[in-house]
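Notes taken during the Thursday session

The instructor put the following on the board and asked us to keep it in front of us for the whole hour. The protein is Factor of DNA methylation 1-5/IDN2 domain-containing protein. We were told not to look anything up and to reason only from what is written here. First, the residues (103 in total):
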Amino acid sequence: MNNELQEKINDLQDLESTNKAFIYKERQRNDKLHEARKVLPELLSNRTNIGLKRMGELDPKAFHDTWKSRFPHDEAKIQATTLCSSRQENLKNPDWHPIFRRN
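Then, after some discussion, the predicted structure tokens were revealed:
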């Protein structure tokens, strides 16, 4: 029982050190992000056009544009929304791997 307790204590210490390493890395990234945000306004002018997009999120407008040439407006909206949300759910699944074939 003492051996099991010692193993659990060792496991807990390992997890704590891993957690501290993650916290340290997160703080470093936050510091870099904070520095970048300070510099960003200096780099931008009134004519600068930067678009931001979240990684892993699909653009529903692209689906709608594709489907509106195949279906009436209301039906295209439904089809595009359905397909986009199913693809978005697939992207969240780490076991899903789309296969793209080239002819």
